[in-house]
């Protein structure tokens, strides 16, 4: 690694969502490159991965307020290029990834005030509180690492680091083959669980089988997939459901899970992005009479992220992030269009800068 201080330009480019909430309205603007304050580092972003949350922001369907100057990406990783005077434990040149929640150091902290995150990171450069950073595992590229802060940790935190950890032999129903789903599938395989994957595409299900799915169900051909899950589990239902859609599929998840089972509620995509009528779902009755545990999942803490990184290093081959396609910075709108097409398996990545192929 060179000992010379890296060149830091005065300005950098970023994509903003614009006032019209469409992919086509995304625009590149020049912004000043900020200087780090005492406890901040300046990170040159090398890659970002796309989230459905980002798509909801672009399309004007995100439930929290945001400005037209918002950058529609929250998962950026890169290399430290400058340090504030009070930063400890990090050096210029370190490969880092910020936690999604910048101030959430431990999952045991329950103060809503610290549950904050950057709505969007400046794509070519961003400031981060140094205590929110985690070192990128040595075996991963920047593109692969960019998939970890949101999608990867969202799967790891409940399945392998939460109060209800997935055990060998347990059956888990995983909805779809997107970022969180593919990470969850990998973790289920490592844990020795029995993953059941549902999707509307036979091609995607073939990818899931190759990754270790024990059973697959095409819900476009078998809309009563909850009944199919019960058949696969001798009428008992699965031990756990990773609910990634929300109310659009929640009732079937309730039907598919066993007495005393667990439903990890992660997604609300079906409610915010669907054009169909989304039903109201009563969770009180099944929580009482079927004794189902409903647990909301909202990414994880810095400590959990560090444990996740160590887990990946311990299982490098089994947990290598699955990237569907990588785009150049200027192609970011095309990357979002690809996500909107819903043909991808795994994560969609945008590489940043003139050295975008450098890993």
Automatic annotation (TrEMBL):
It holds the Pfam family ADH_N. Residues 21-350 form the Enoyl reductase (ER) domain. Gene3D superfamilies: Medium-chain alcohol dehydrogenases, catalytic domain, NAD(P)-binding Rossmann-like Domain. It comes from the Eukaryota. InterPro entries: ADH-like_C, ADH-like_N, ER, GroES-like_sf, NAD(P)-bd_dom_sf, Zinc_ADH-like. One of its GO terms (molecular function) is oxidoreductase activity. PANTHER family: PTHR45033, ZINC-TYPE ALCOHOL DEHYDROGENASE-LIKE PROTEIN C1773.06C. This is Alcohol dehydrogenase superfamily protein.
């Amino acid at each position: 690694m060179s000992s010379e201080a890296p060149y830091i330009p005065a300005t950098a480019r970023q994509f903003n969502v614009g006032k019209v909430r469409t992919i086509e309205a995304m625009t590149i603007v020049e912004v000043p490159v900020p200087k780090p304050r005492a406890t901040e580092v300046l990170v040159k972003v090398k890659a970002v991965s796309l989230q459905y949350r980002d798509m909801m922001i672009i399309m004007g369907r995100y439930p929290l307020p945001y400005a037209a100057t918002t950058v529609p990406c929250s998962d950026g990783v890169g290399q430290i290029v400058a340090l504030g005077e009070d930063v400890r434990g990090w050096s210029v040149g370190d490969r880092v990834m910020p936690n999604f929640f910048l101030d959430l150091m431990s999952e045991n902290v329950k103060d809503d005030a610290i549950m904050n995150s950057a709505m969007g990171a400046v794509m070519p450069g961003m400031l981060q509180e140094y205590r929110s950073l985690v070192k990128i595992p040595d075996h991963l590229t920047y593109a692969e690492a960019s998939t970890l802060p949101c999608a990867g940790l969202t799967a790891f935190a409940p399945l392998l680091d939460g109060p209800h950890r997935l055990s060998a032999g347990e059956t888990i129903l995983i909805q779809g083959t997107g970022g969180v789903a593919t990470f969850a599938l990998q973790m289920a395989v490592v844990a020795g669980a029995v993953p059941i994957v549902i999707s509307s595409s036979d091609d995607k299900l073939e990818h899931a089988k190759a990754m270790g799915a024990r059973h697959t169900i095409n819900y476009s051909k078998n809309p009563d997939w909850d009944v199919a899950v019960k058949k696969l589990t001798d009428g008992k239902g699965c031990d756990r459901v990773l609910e990634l859609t929300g109310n659009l599929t929640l009732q079937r998840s309730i039907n598919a899970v066993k007495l005393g089972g667990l439903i990890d509620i992660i997604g609300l995509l079906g409610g915010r992005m669907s054009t169909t009528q989304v039903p109201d779902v009563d969770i009180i009755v099944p929580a009482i009479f079927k004794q189902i545990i409903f647990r909301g999942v909202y990414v994880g803490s810095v400590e959990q992220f560090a444990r996740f990184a160590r887990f990946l290093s311990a299982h490098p081959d089994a947990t290598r992030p699955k990237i569907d396609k990588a785009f150049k910075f200027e192609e970011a709108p095309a990357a979002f269009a690809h996500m909107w097409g819903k043909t991808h398996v795994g994560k969609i990545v945008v590489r940043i800068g003139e050295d975008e192929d450098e890993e």
